[in-house]
Amino acid sequence: MSRGRLHASRHDGFAAGLLPIFTMVLLALVTVMPVKIPGYAAVTPLFVLMGAYHWTVYRPDLLPPVALFVLGCVVDLLAGAPLGVSSLVLLVVRTAVMRQRKFFVGRLFPFVWAGFALAAGAAAALQWALGCAINAGLFDPRSALLQWVLSVGAYPVVSWILMRLQRWSLATWEARA
Question: What's the pTM?
Answer without folding.
Answer: 0.87
